[in-house]
Amino acid sequence: MASLKFPTLKNPSLSLSSKSCLPSAFFVTRPNNLSFSRSSQPQRRFLIITASAASFSNKPTVLVAEKLGEAGLTLLKEFANVDCSYNLSPEELCTKISLCDALIVRSGTKVNREVFESSGGRLKVVGRAGVGIDNVDLAAATEHGCLVVNAPTANTVAAAEHGIALLAAMARNVAQADASVKAGKWQRNKYVGVSLVGKTLAVLGFGKVGSEVARRAKGLGMHVIAHDPYAPADRARAIGVELVSFEETIATADFISLHMPLTPATSKMLNDETFAKMKKGVRIVNVARGGVIDEDALVRALDSGIVAQAALDVFTEEPPKQDSKLVQHERVTVTPHLGASTMEAQEGVAIEIAEAVVGALKGELAATAVNAPMVPAEVLTELKPYVELAEKLGRLAVQLVGGGSGVKSVKVSYASSRAPDDLDTRLLRAMITKGLIEPISSVFVNLVNADYTAKQRGLRITEERIILDGSPESPLESIQVQIANVESKFASSISESGEIKVEGRVKDGVPHLTKVGSFEVDVSLEGSIILCRQVDQPGMIGKVGSILGQENVNVSFMSVGRIAPRKQAVMAIGVDEQPSKESLKRIGEVPAIEEFVFLKL
Ligand SMILES: NC(=O)C1=CN([C@@H]2O[C@H](COP(=O)(O)OP(=O)(O)OC[C@H]3O[C@@H](n4cnc5c(N)ncnc54)[C@H](O)[C@@H]3O)[C@@H](O)[C@H]2O)C=CC1
Ligand SMILES: O=C(O)C(=O)COP(=O)(O)O
Fold first, then answer.
1. Do the bridges between strand 36-38 and strand 47-49 make them parallel or antiparallel, or are there none, so unpaired?
2. Which domain covers residue 431, as residue numbers?
3. How many angstroms separate the CA atoms of 412 and 432, rounded?
4. Which residues carry out catalysis?
5. What is the mean pLDDT of the chain?
């Protein structure tokens, strides 16, 4: 694989002399304050510099669109011209951006497609001074060859402290009582609170912030449990926290604190159905993202008394509408997304983001990059179907994990007739890592940050090469992903040696799943997949097919892998649409089906 170092800005005019010379062009670097035009020749494009000497500057320009700590600004100024323009309207941002090489924002600025389009290709890096990058259009950034970096660690403690502040303030009615005294009242009986000591706190999302909240809550004498299907149990044990199922967490908690990322799987995770299963009088804290709660359902749960109180730092829409029932509810305490807002965190975040942005502008690889870099076209073309296969195998494997044991050790085996030097597996490993981590985390994984991300999560990925005889024309025969020391939601995916095992191949350019546990299957990895273990017998395909057909779910592929005729078999069914819960239930009720699982690709 060619070098992945980005072209540097130190000698910008050289890197621009001909675009076709760029090694692995992630950025098309351009000098500042130069007017230029390109010839219209299709292959070779030349820069024609027409700048006056007075306007020439080698320094890039960084637009800081939201308040950033001084230490970060100082770092930036050593390397770049820094334009601090806060509260820009979307139109003003689009106008300014064409003059900038980098943009730094927090959660209040929408960096949408229009911003990238307006930049005319000059914008090379967007720095998100914080964790969540839901305000940046990553697809548009990548399409425009713009790197996005964030600052994932410097505000962890601040967010955890704010969670604890909200927990205590809520339990003792601090905000309501404060407003009452300021309104001239003295209502000591009205604002009797509840104690924290001895109560059960459930932390949902035991990542960086969640584990810091748990640690602090233990110090307050609380009994802490957590639910995070992907967190290592030993990390939880080390701070005296028990990892339990989602159902148990919500049914037993006196307080629930939310710390998972907003993903399709966590969106509206707290809803009418889940509130109904909670202990009456539960109290909820949210410093994660507003979207993990169905806010209308929360209002209903507050009104019905299931939820006694809530303390919210984040909202689906920010700022929320002034007449929002939730915000105005007398048993709800709110803050305007202040989780990361401490002097210390903002200084830390500012330094973390300034270093990342300066590094990226210098052409260095950024450890906190959150979108995909461009790789040489010839490598991508050859590996493209295998890259897709790798990511999908990772996605499948992690969705098979059950129980609370956590994913710590993954082994990847590549069977290939290529000499080891002739097959660079970094991209494949990165994509497997992406498949394993993205469905369960707020982190975006790519070639740049895959190893870093795996390490941060305590995930050990080992690789093994199986050298095959034969023609080395295609780069790979098969990829196998094994997850050790875990339970599975689908017991048949556990191989004889005790690991969850999935294997896939590329057939006619399309990735296929070819093995689950010890069972051979053959299903194209498109749409979604249902895996069923059954007693092999006639008519099974028809039974399941007709349940799916009744609700117009299109079956793209079906295959049955069995140990021996009329013994146990695994049926793999590819579906274009997601079947309803009812249909999945009916599939589970087919008498010969012993277990089944629905997996999203
Ligand atoms: N209010 C604020 O100002 C701040 C908010 N945040 C938000 O807090 C959230 C967490 O941040 P970090 O701890 O840094 O992220 P992290 O990635 O370290 O932790 C997230 C954890 O959630 C877990 N998770 C994923 N899906 C889950 C599910 N379905 N159920 C339970 N757990 C699940 C993951 O396994 C991971 O351990 C992010 O959304 C972030 O944006 C972070 C900093 C400040
Ligand atoms: O880092 C995060 O994810 C946050 O939510 C903090 O957002 P902010 O930088 O304070 O706008």
1. antiparallel
2. 376-517
3. 9
4. 289, 318, 337
5. 85
Q: Is 130 in the pocket of ligand 2 (CB under 6 A)?
A: yes
pLDDT (tens digit per residue) in 517-540: 989 999 999 889 999 998 877 787
Cβ of 265 less than 6 Å from ligand 1: yes
Tokens of 15: 């890197």
State the Cα–Cα distance between residues 166 and 206, nearest whole angstrom: 18
Under the banding of pLDDT at 50, 70 and 90, the label for residue 577 is confident
pTM passes above 0.90: no
**Token pair of 358 as six digits:** 């300066």
Percent of the chain with pLDDT over 70: 87
CATH number, position 580: 3.30.70.260
Contacts of 209 (CB under 8 A, 6+ apart): 156, 159, 160, 163, 259, 287, 288
User: Tens of pLDDT along 238-275?
Assistant: 999 999 999 999 999 999 999 998 887 899 999 999 99
Residue to substitute in 131, 204, 248, 315 for testing ligand 1 pocket (most ligand atoms within 8 angstroms of CB):
131
Determine how many CB atoms are found less than 10 A away from the CB of residue 45: 15
How many angstroms separate the alpha carbon of residue 309 from the centre of ligand 1?
22
CA gap 100, 88 in Å, rounded? 14
Measured in Å, residue 267 CA sits from the centre of ligand 1 at 12
Peptide bond into 591 cis (omega under 30): no
Any ligand 1 atom below 6 A from CB of 286: no
Nearest atom, ligand 2, residue 442 CA: 3
290 lines ligand 2 (CB under 6 A): no
- Residues 178 and 301 placed together within one structural domain of the fold: yes
CA 67–ligand 2 middle distance (angstroms): 12
Q: Interior CA angle at 74 toward 70 and 78, to 5°?
A: 170
Which candidate, 493, 475, 473, 469, places its Cα nearest to that of 483? 493
Closest residue CA from atom 38 of ligand 1 = 261
Are 273 and 216 found together in one domain? yes
Residue 380: per-residue pLDDT: 66
- For residues 206 and 296, membership in a common domain is answered with yes
Longest Cα separation, the chain: 87
Q: Which two tokens stand for residue 424?
A: 């660079």
pLDDT at 403: 75
Contacts of 181 (CB under 8 A, 6+ apart): none
359 three-state secondary structure: helix
| pLDDT at position 592 | 85
Q: Say what the pLDDT of residue 411 is.
A: 96
Nearest one of 519, 534, 520, 503 to 596, comparing CA atoms: 534
Number of compact structural domains in the chain: 4
Return the residue whose CA atom lies nearest to atom 16 of ligand 1.
207
**Ligand 2 midpoint to CA 141 (Å):** 20
391 token code pair:
């990511």
Q: Is residue 578 part of a domain?
A: yes
SS3 270: strand
Would you say residue 56 has pLDDT above 50?
A: no
Q: Which atom of ligand 2 is nearest to the CA of 150?
A: 1
pLDDT band at 471; cut points 50, 70, 90? confident
